[in-house]
């Protein structure tokens, strides 16, 4: 028996309505803020990620799916979406368009991680990138979009964690201070932190190991080291977020796991999911376009993990819209009625009313049972009597009531009910449910 690769998931029909719900809202958000869709390949040349994500990050050191293709080139399944968008920006001369350019994407991301709930080896991201401006208004726009998506979806108990990690100049001063502070600890509790002290001291601050966290708590904070420009940028961002009434929390230990960030970093976190609590994250990456060979262009962005959003919707018992987009079950008794049902289904679909037609010649009782289990609010029944009288029987599945109407009035009646909100199942009112 074959199974899906470890850490990779099938998305079965029963879960698709969550995906549609989240992706529709994300698309709506991108429209509201003027972001245009970009798609990049799932594979890139490996060098792109070595250069952008950073050779000493966990992603590059431990998590990339890298292999040689048949032509001998080293390629990597994308472990994140920002570097590919920047590569495309440079390759297609998007700096020639009015700046900043606002782009969004949906796509699979591949990271060879230890799988657990909310941590997969293939996950999907919705991401947004604004390239070509250093204005802190854009940083606020990113936090605002990520936050709005979560609140529109009805998610609760989330926090926005915010930090500034400064620019190259003030950060390198800070890293020096950090090294001095940590050097007073002769023996760091975890081997990862001992390595971080050598290669990536900022990451000492977000080690999840409790003894390491105790040391990190007393470490000097970056805010005191920010240069005037970085401080002003950070102050403006905080002011804009306050104006937008986004309840952020300042977190001096938020540094994120990719090397390209400078100044703003942020995450949207769920309060209760332990290790895998980040639903989304992002920040500013002013040097990345230049690092990848483009003309300097400051930029900022974020990405949300769709599986983690769905996991949280499910934990919070948020019910997306009805699973089945069809709303009518077409039941019939007998061969003549079956043929009539086929053309009636066609009429309904022409009128954009979704229909599921019974098959396999089951009893009427079994057909109605199926309509129920599919969650369809109405059944239309055709039997010999209906054929003779050119009528159909319309059954309200929830109430169990039914009425006979002339067949030619069916489409107009269903449309009228739909317009008045009389039929559940097609509208998209999202509510809480069990
Ligand atoms: P990231 O924080 O690595 O950022 O990933 C963004 C989101 O993807 C995370 O907050 C999380 O929800 C989800 N995610 C990450 N890894 C996994 C996993 N193994 N399984 C399930 N979900 C996961 C980035 O990738 C940056 N490119 C974001 C960005 C865009 N920064 C600027 N622009």
Structure overview:
With 434 residues, the chain is α+β, with helices and mostly antiparallel strands. Helices cover 38% and strands 22% of the residues. It is built from 15 helices and 18 strands. It has helices at residues 13-32, 46-53, 58-63, 82-91, 136-152, 168-183, 191-199, 210-217, 228-243, 288-291, 306-315, 335-350, 364-373, 384-389, 410-419; strands spanning 36-37, 43-45, 66-68, 74-77, 101-110, 122-131, 158-164, 248-250, 262-270, 278-284, 299-305, 318-319, 328-332, 355-357, 378-382, 391-396, 401-406, 431-432. The strands form four sheets. Strands 1-5-6-11-10-9-7-8 form an eight-stranded mixed beta sheet, sandwiched between helices. A five-stranded mixed beta sheet has the order 14-13-15-16-17, with helices on both faces. The protein has a three-stranded antiparallel beta sheet with strand order 2-4-3. A hairpin with a 4-residue loop joins strand 16 and strand 17 (401-406). Helix 1 packs antiparallel against helix 5 (136-152) and helix 5 packs parallel to helix 9. The chain is elongated, with a radius of gyration of 27 Å. 37% of the residues are buried. It binds histidyl-adenosine monophosphate. Histidyl-adenosine monophosphate binds at residues 80-82, 111, 113, 118-120, 123, 125, 127, 129, 278-283, 301-303, 305, 307-308.
């Amino acid at each position: 028996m074959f199974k899906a690769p470890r850490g990779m998931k099938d998305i079965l029909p029963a879960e698709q309505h969550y995906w549609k719900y989240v992706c529709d809202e994300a698309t709506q958000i991108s429209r509201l803020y003027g972001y245009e869709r970009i798609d990049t390949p799932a594979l890139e040349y490996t060098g792109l990620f070595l250069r952008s994500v950073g050779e000493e990050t966990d992603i590059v050191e431990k998590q990339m799916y890298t292999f040689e293709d048949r032509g001998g080139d080293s390629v990597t399944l994308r472990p994140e979406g920002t570097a590919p968008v920047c590569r495309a920006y440079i390759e297609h001369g998007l700096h020639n368009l009015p700046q900043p350019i606002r782009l969004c994407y949906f796509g699979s991301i591949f990271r060879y991680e230890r799988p657990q709930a909310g941590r997969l080896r293939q996950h999907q991201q919705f991401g947004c990138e604004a390239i070509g401006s250093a204005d802190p208004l854009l940083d606020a726009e990113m936090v605002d979009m990520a936050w709005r998506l979560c609140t529109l979806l009805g998610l609760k108990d989330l926090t926005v964690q915010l930090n500034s990690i400064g620019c190259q100049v003030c950060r390198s001063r800070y890293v020096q201070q950090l090294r001095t502070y940590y050097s007073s600890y002769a023996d760091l509790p975890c081997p990862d932190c001992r390595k971080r002290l050598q290669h990536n001291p900022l990451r000492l601050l977000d080690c999840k190991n409790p003894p390491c966290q105790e040391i990190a708590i007393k470490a000097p904070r970056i805010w005191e080291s920010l240069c005037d420009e970085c401080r002003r940028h950070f102050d403006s961002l905080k002011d804009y977020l306050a104006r937008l009434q986004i309840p952020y929390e300042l977190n001096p230990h938020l540094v994120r796991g990719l090397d390209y960030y400078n100044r703003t970093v942020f995450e949207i976190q769920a309060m209760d999911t332990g290790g895998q609590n980040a639903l989304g994250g992002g920040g500013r990456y002013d040097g990345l376009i230049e690092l990848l060979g483009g003309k300097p262009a400051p930029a900022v962005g974020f990405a949300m993990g769709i599986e983690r959003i769905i996991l949280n919707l499910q934990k919070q018992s948020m019910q997306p819209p009805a699973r089945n987009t069809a709303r009518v079950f077409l039941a019939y008794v007998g061969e003549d009625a079956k043929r009539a049902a086929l053309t009636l289904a066609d009429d309904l679909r022409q009128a954009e009313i979704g229909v599921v037609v019974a098959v396999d010649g089951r009893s009427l009782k079994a057909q109605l049972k199926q309509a129920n289990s599919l969650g369809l609010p109405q059944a239309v029944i055709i039997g010999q009597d209906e054929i003779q009288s050119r009528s159909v029987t319309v059954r309200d599945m929830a109430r169990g009531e039914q009425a006979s109407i002339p067949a030619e009035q069916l489409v107009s009646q269903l449309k009228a009910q739909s317009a008045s909100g009389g039929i559940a199942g097609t509208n998209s009112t999202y509510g809480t449910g069990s």
